[in-house]
Specification:
The protein contains six helices and 14 strands. The protein is α/β, with parallel strands linked by helices.
Length: 283
Amino acid sequence: MKIFITGASGFIGSYLTKLANKKGYEIIALKRGDIDNDNLDKNIYWIKKDLSEIDMYDLEKVDVLINLASAGVSPRKASIKELTKTNVIGPIKLMEEAIKANVKRCVFIGTCHEYGLSSDRYKMIPSNAPLMPTNNYARSKVASFYMLEALCKTYKTELIYPRIFLAYGLGQNDINFWSSLRNAALNGSDFKMTKGSQIRDFIPVEEVAEHLLNCCFRGDVVKGIPLVFNIGSGSPISLLDFAKKEWKRFNAKGKILNGSIPMRVNEPNSYVADTFNLYEKKI
C-alpha cells in the first residue's frame, strides 16, 4: 500500500509516519521547510512543497491520502489569511488533485474544537452534533469540512473525516497542557493551572496514530458518503484529576497549584468523544 501523508513532520503526523513505516507501507511524506533533513527517516520519500503545490503527479499510484497539515493548531497562532490558505483552500485543492489522480481514499483530519459551543449540550459529543466553533482555527476547519463533504458527494469518492480530541505525548509543544505538566513534574517545579473543573477527553498520541492508520483499511467506507467519527478515549476526566494522575505517575515533588490561572473566556466546559464508528462496522 502506498500512503501519502501531509503534516508528516508534525506532532501527530510524525507518530503516524513512523508507525506506517514500521509496518512496511510505502510512504510519501510532505514536510515543512524548517525541518532538518538529518532528523527525517531515510526510508520515507520526503517532499518539500507547500500544501497548495501538491498536484496529481505527486499523488500518482497513491492508494490513500492522509492530510494532517494544518495552521493555527494550539498553541500556535495564525492569521485569517493563513488559516484560509492552509486549512480551507489547501485541503480543497489537495482533494481535487487526489480525485484527478484516482486516489482510492482520502482521509482529512478534523478537530473536536469544530463542535465548539455545541459540546456542552452532550455528555459525549456525537459526530453529527451541530458545529458551533468559537475560534478562527476551528471555523476554518468547519469550512474545509463542508467543502470536502461536497467534493466527496459530487465525485462519489471515499472520504474519511475523523475529529481528534485531546491527543498528548512526547514531542507535543511545550506550552500544551500535558507537556507543561510533565516538564514541571520532571523539573521538580510547582504546576500552575486553572481550577481544573473542565471535563476533557485525553488520548495518547500513539493510539491516535493507530486509529489513523486503520483508516487506510476500513471496509465500511461508502463512496460518496463521508465517514465522520471522533477519535478519543470516550472517558471523561477533569483537568485537575488528569493532572493529579499524571503528577503521581511522574512521581513529582512539586505542587499542583490549581486555581492560580484564570479560566478562558467562553471556554466550553466539556469535550468528551462519543466514539461511535471509531471502529469498523461490518457492511
